[in-house]
Amino acid sequence: RTTQKRSLYVRALFDYDPLKDTGLPNRGVAFQQGDILHVTNASDDEWWQARLVACAASGGDPPTAAEQAAAFGIIPSKRRVERRERAKLRKDGTAGSLDSCESVHTQQSQQQPAAPSEDTASAGNLSDSHVAIPTYEAVQQLDIRLARPVIILGPLKDQLNDALIGQFPDRFGSCVPHTTRPQREGEQDGRDYHFVDSREQMERDIAEHLFIEAGQYNGNLYGTSVSSVRRVAQSGRHCILDVSGNAIRRLEAAGLPPIAIFVRAASMENLCQLRRGLTEEQARKLLDRSARMEAEFSAYFTATVSGQSFDEIFSQVKRVISAQSDRPVWVTCRDED
Ligand code: 5GP
Fold this sequence. Notes:
- One of its GO terms (cellular component) is neuron projection.
- Residues 147-322 form the Guanylate kinase-like domain.
- The structure is a single chain.
- The chain is of the alpha/beta class and 337 residues long.
- 34% of the residues lie in helices and 21% in strands.
- The protein contains eleven helices and 15 strands.
- Helix 3 crosses helix 10 (280-297).
């Protein structure tokens, strides 16, 4: 009872419905993956006392008045969640329903320790105790004064990116990538690309996490450096990035937490309405890819939007970005202090 941490804030990495939980000693708090909770008492092994402070589904909004009343109560401790999920795994025989969550955690466990440090020895045999269970991760509030980068994921991202930069060139910009390919006639160093002389140097810089993403094309390296993104942010514009979900955490780690907006197509019909001209196979592939992306990264999305038309979705994207400018930013703690 003496190990309780002060001001422990966590991001939930799973959905929790207290109505479906048995044995709750007190009123439970419902939350969803990505929500931020203030854990006010973590001294009990099974149950923590917590308050919901930001809801992921509404782009980080604080709970509404109605939600406020239900926002304080009991949540299962990290240890309890792990023990119950492991029991479920053993019963099912396979990873089954945890597939999607595991990938989130695998990636995260390599980079960051999980939230409150509790032992997991109660988990049972070795064959399943090594499986990482997504529970909570410690987060902290960041006071950021730069224009945050924007990452749009899912269908329509190219059209939305173009519309933001095209309609609001003073508020949104793009950054100049690096490449090892030779400069072409008419290209300008620092405008079209940062042309890099030494491939070895760029490889070293990628290994040292100076790039948020990098790839190879026709034998040449290409990548987006943290400093190029920071330069756009310092100019007061949101840097629009066309990158994978992995970049969200890399940017967070670099002190540039992005506004990550996932566009969800509700159905095949909805997708074909939004992206006319897609073949059925293309649409199916796009939906599959989106579903995988959502399963892997949704805890890190600032908001998820959907709608019947481009205009409807574009309005929501603009609203989320505007609303974020006066919202606190929650980022994963990188050490356990
Ligand atoms: P080009 O050499 O013709 O300018 O670009 C060729 C290709 O390089 C692009 O179509 C794109 O696939 C890739 N590329 C350009 N910039 C970047 C970047 O910043 N990151 C990555 N991963 N690839 C890029």
